[in-house]
Structure formats: C-alpha cells, structure tokens
Amino acid sequence: MSSVPVAVVTGSNKGIGLAIVRALCKQFPGDVYLTSRDPGSGQAAVAQLQQEGLRPLYHQLDIDDVQSIRALRDFLKEKYGGLNVLVNNAGIAFKVHDTTPFAVQAEVTLKTNFFGTRNVCTELLPLMKPYGRVVNVSSMVSSSALRGCSQELQQKFRSDTITEDELVQLMAKFVEDTKKSVHEKEGWPNTAYGVSKIGVTVLSRIQARLLNEQRKGDHILLNACCPGWVRTDMAGPKATKSPDEGAETPVYLALLPSSADAPHGQFVSDKTVRPW
Ligand code: NAP
C-alpha cells in the first residue's frame, strides 16, 4: 500500500475540474487523480496536462453510477488505504433556453448535482484520512435560490439540525412537485440548478456537523464553495473568470494547511466565508 497522499477531483476532463487538477498537480504533494465518466475524454485531458509537464493519474468515475463510485472507492482503499483530498466538482446545467420540460430538467439536474454528489460522499467520506480536505463545488446560485424559497423552506435549509435524510426527502419532493407542476405553490424557486446547489451547500453543512460529532480528532475540513462565473462549456465565453481563476477557491480549500481549523462547514467564494 502506498503512503503517498492522494487527491481526487470529480468531473475533471474539462472546465473548472481540469483547472483544479492542473493546480493540484503543481501544489499538492502527492498523487492527483483526474477522473471522468468517459475514459476517452479523460485520457485526452491527461495528455493535455502531460504536454504542460504535469503528471496527473487517471481513474474512471461516473457520479451517476454507484458501481463506478464503488470501483474508485475500492481502488483508493487498496492502493492508498484512504483519501486525503476530495473535490466534488462534477455537475451539469441545462442552458437557459433549453426547451426540455422543467420536470425532466429537475430530475436530471438533481440526479447528478445532488444525488450523485451525495453518493460520492457516502462512499468516499469514510475513506478520508486525518487532516483530509473535502470541497463540494456549489454555486452562488444556491444562495439566490435559497432566497427564492418560501420562508418555511428557507428555515429548513438554514437549520443547524436538519438531517441528511430530511434533506434527501426535500430534494426528492422538489422533483415530485415539478412533475405535478406544483413546485411554485409548494414554495420552491423556478430553478432546478439552483435547488440542486441548495442541496449541495446544505449537504456540506450537514456533513461538516457529522464530522464534528463523529471524527472530531481527525481535523478534517469540509466546505462548499462557488468558483465564480467561469468561462467553461457550462457558463459560456462571456463569463468573467478563466478556468484557472475559477479553480483558485476550490484549490485554496483543498490545500488548507494542517494547522488550520477553519473554514469548516462553510459556503466560501473568493476565498471568503459567505453568510448562508
Ligand atoms: P463543465 O465545463 O460543463 O464541466 C462539468 C464537468 O462535470 C465535466 O467534466 C463533465 O463531464 C462532468 N460531469 C457531468 N456529469 C457527470 C457525471 N455524472 N459523472 C462524472 N462527471 C460528470 O462545467 P464547469 O463550469 O467546469 O463546472 C464545474 C462545476 O462548477 C459544476 O459543479 C458547476 O455547477 C460549478 N459551477 C460553475 C460555474 C461557472 O460559471 N462555470 C459557476 C458556479 C458553479 P462530461 O465532459 O462527460 O460532460
């Protein structure tokens, strides 16, 4: 078993994820895994970084596929005996003018952004080694979507006692409410992406609380963040930040020094803790 530290970035064949791998290859003292659902685009991204003189490693990972997540889990357990840095970056967004029915957009978006990210956490968080760092890439849109929720929902999503099961039920309820076209009446905002990212931010707050309760002595720090508005296939060419600039806050959180005890359980953008 290798004692080399290991970092994994989900959805890192392009965009912000690829830039996070690039930065970690330069700054993280260990093995850095670029992962992708499609091995071809993942290997092409590895080749691109090799051209830049970097040495990322590769593993397949489709966060929508529990078997794929478990294969990575077993590989990490066997080869490294755990994991030091996990960046949950993989995500999807329908374009604003996409005509796919809203209920379908809600189901598909929540499936990857919330349920897929949660499944990765369920399988990989138990592997986190002491002083591990977990970064869940959310979005500022989670904050604006939160403000668009009914007072009752806002209270639930800001609660310091909400459980993971309760959050999962709320995310599933949103999808069901869109199918019945009652989501607005039920207090939800009209954004599937926004609700999925509320889920990612609240999940991060819950997971940080559980780490405090169950693994206090392990000094693991877990946060949600927004990378900013970044020029990628998702956000388009008009966005203000380059992918490398978008990677800065996630990488800052992934490399918090072992002496740090904060931020933890926070929502962070531009390396600054934001109110939730
Ligand atoms: P992107 O260029 O579209 O990249 C998204 C990445 O996620 C791709 O590698 C994609 O793989 C991967 N992915 C999607 N579904 C996956 C799955 N089921 N399993 C594994 N990988 C999957 O988007 P981006 O802008 O870099 O976004 C990265 C993250 O930042 C997302 O979570 C996004 O919501 C968040 N974010 C972005 C912005 C922005 O302005 N760009 C702002 C706030 C937050 P494929 O190539 O196979 O599709």
From TrEMBL:
Q: Which keywords does the record carry?
A: Cytoplasm, NADP, Oxidoreductase, Phosphoprotein
Q: Sorted alphabetically, which Pfam families does this protein's record hold?
A: adh_short (PF00106)
Q: Hey, what's the signal peptide range on this chain?
A: none
Q: Name one GO cellular component term.
A: cytoplasm
**What Gene Ontology terms describe what this protein does at the molecular function level?**
carbonyl reductase (NADPH) activity
Enumerate the subcellular locations listed in this protein's record, separating them with semicolons.
Answer: Cytoplasm
Q: What is its main location?
A: cytoplasm
EC number, as in UniProt:
1.1.1.184
Q: Does the keyword Lipoprotein apply?
A: no
The UniProt family comment states:
Belongs to the short-chain dehydrogenases/reductases (SDR) family.
Which PANTHER family does the record match to this protein? Answer: CARBONYL REDUCTASE (NADPH), CARBONYL REDUCTASE 1-RELATED
Q: What protein is this chain from?
A: carbonyl reductase (NADPH)
